[in-house]
Protein 1
Amino acid sequence: MHTANIKRSIVRNGQKTSVSLEDEFWEGLREIANAQKAKLSTLVRQIDQGRQGNNLSSAIRVFVFNQLRAQTSAGAYALPQQAAESAEMR
């Protein structure tokens, strides 16, 4: 499976810059922003301010991944195999 990167322009520190991410990460980032009742630009700014050495695209990917991992740890999501095994046990 190959997913193309999508480049979007954002304003960062008053400067326009572009960020290239796979569409799935853009969708995940929007979902997180909606869940937090925050603007996408605000969330990107927070990620940008908290990153350490990574480029912004990588920092966003790690952030989205960590949010998913936190939800998975909390039991909000089950992996497809876990869900099937759970259904079989019922």
Note: The radius of gyration is 16 Å.
Protein 2
Amino acid sequence: MRKSKKLAQSLIEYGLILALVAVVAIAALQILGKKVNDAATTAGDNIDKTSQNAAQTYCEKSVGGTWNADTGVCTPPDNN
């Protein structure tokens, strides 16, 4: 009977440790979640701006066209 009590006590201790780890993990995710989301949004915005600038530069310098920033469309020059 004594071994059974020790086993039950160990299982309860492991359960409490697991619960504590879960609470700490949830708290960390709550704190870091917004920061990770903000970083991903900033990175996405920077990629979008860079690609728009590259497209505009290609349109104006290489193609010789007119870049419409509102639509993101390059209108090539009329070569008639």
Note: The mean pLDDT is 89.
